[in-house]
Specification:
Rossmann fold, six-stranded parallel beta sheet, globular, 13 strands, 39% helix, 17 helices, 2 domains, alpha/beta
């Protein structure tokens, strides 16, 4: 069967099933899910809140049977996406709650439900219909008939608009509204569940050991270190191009062999030398790669004082307790503005990133920096050494900038997300 015929069948089936799902009666319950079939991010923490507050019947849907079993064992209602009950609840739930797209729950059965997109980041880089370059451009702005057909066939869920989104500031609300083709009345002005949760439920961050420590305190004791650092770089859209090349590139002699995906992190960092530096500094580095490139962390395993946590469901349990965030272009630093952690931007591939990956919004060019910017490995090592000797190395300028940025991004943080979302589903 040719690819064209396959895409035609896929298009007809997807659109037909989605249309028919719109006639299904829906009752007051919420089906919830997460990207990559994880139990993470905003939908996770709203789900946990609704389990405790009993605001609404909340059901977790996932394509990961092991995760479903784990949640069931913990006493939560969860179903495999394509089980009879998973399909039934996806067809009959009044609310779909997700972190990226309706496919977090079920992209074929969502028509007729009220869709609440909690999103998984802050709009620093261009998102959705605002994307104007890079490999994702044709998803939202196809030009030829062929591109339009492929976009509508393969990216159905990306074109389904949410009914509501949460936004912690006027800036974010305006950017979300434009990127998702929504209006401002559809924005719920509040904090995010992922950052609100441990403020409302501080006991949830304690672990059942003799000291009842937080996870970070436990790691410090286990590894006998004084500081814990989180390295969480942004996903490089250019890996999409590398993947395409890897699948299409073959050797004409001696059989075919896909080319190896380029690992930008091992090219930029001597992890063996970094490990020795961390040991000398009494520091532990938690390596957290984006889910779309988490497999790249396998090349960095087995170094002392470097712990790969790319397979963790999420990192929001630890962000209030780490001593430093190392990132580059990731909007995670915006969430970290609310914590005590120092922030350093390790931007080792500035030119390549700007040309191959999504551009940032124009407003981002004029933002004050929330931390120091380093562009090579030696500068990073020097920064870590200084941090080990003085935990308060952030400059007065950076502290002032952080306060300014916190107001810009967290204008409505006092409006707790759980209160606002409880009101929405209780109306």
């Amino acid at each position: 069967m040719s690819q064209f015929i396959f895409n035609c069948i896929r298009y007809v089936v997807t659109k037909t099933v989605y249309f028919i799902a719109g006639f299904s009666p829906r009752t007051r319950k919420a089906v919830m899910g997460c990207y990559k079939n994880k139990f993470a991010d905003n939908s996770k923490y709203l789900f946990l809140h609704w389990q405790q507050a009993m605001t609404i019947r909340a059901i977790w849907i996932s394509g990961n049977k092991t995760l479903v079993s784990q949640l069931n064992h913990q006493g939560y209602e969860a179903y495999y996406r394509w089980s009879a009950k998973g399909i039934y609840h996806a067809l009959t739930a009044k609310y779909y709650v997700y972190n990226s797209y309706i496919g977090d729950v079920n992209q074929y059965l969502a028509k007729g439900a009220i869709k609440i997109n909690l999103w998984h980041g802050s709009p620093l880089k261009r998102i959705e219909f605002d994307i104007n370059n890079g490999p994702l451009f044709k998803v939202y702005h196809p030009e030829t008939l062929q591109e339009k057909f492929i976009s509508n066939t393969q990216f159905h869920q990306q074109k389904v608009r949410p009914d509501y989104m949460i936004a912690p500031s006027d800036l974010v609300a305006g950017l979300f509204a434009g990127a998702f083709k929504m209006n401002l009345q559809q924005m719920i002005l509040s904090g995010n569940p992922r950052t609100d949760y441990y403020r409302r439920y501080p006991q949830a961050n304690q672990h059942s050991n003799q000291q009842n420590d937080t996870l970070i305190e436990g790691l410090k004791q286990t590894y006998q270190v004084k500081q814990v650092l989180l390295y969480a770089p942004s996903w490089r859209d250019s890996t999409l191009l590398n993947d395409t090349k890897a699948h299409s590139s073959t050797s004409t002699a001696g059989g075919s062999h896909p080319s190896q995906k380029i690992n930008p992190y091992t090219q930029a960092i001597d992890f063996e030398a970094l490990s020795a530096c961390l040991v000398a500094n009494d520091q532990l580095l938690l390596l957290r790669l984006h889910p779309n490139e988490a497999e790249l962390a396998k090349a960095i395993d087995n170094h002392p004082n470097i712990l790969n946590i790319s397979d963790w469901q999420d990192t929001y349990e630890i962000i209030n307790d780490v001593d430093l965030l190392i990132t580059d272009y990731s909007s995670l630093y915006i969430d970290m503005l609310q914590t005590k952690a120092d922030i350093v931007f390790f931007q080792f591939d500035q030119q390549e990133y700007q040309s191959d990956s999504r551009q940032c919004y124009p407003y981002a060019d004029d933002l004050p920096m929330a931390g120091e910017v380093v562009t090579n490995y030696l500068q990073l090592v020097e920064y870590l050494q200084n941090l080990s000797q003085n935990t308060n190395i952030a400059s007065l300028t950076n502290k002032k900038n952080r306060a300014e940025l916190a107001q810009l991004y967290w204008q409505y943080q006092h409006n707790e997300s759980f209160i606002q979302l409880d009101k929405l589903v209780s109306a």
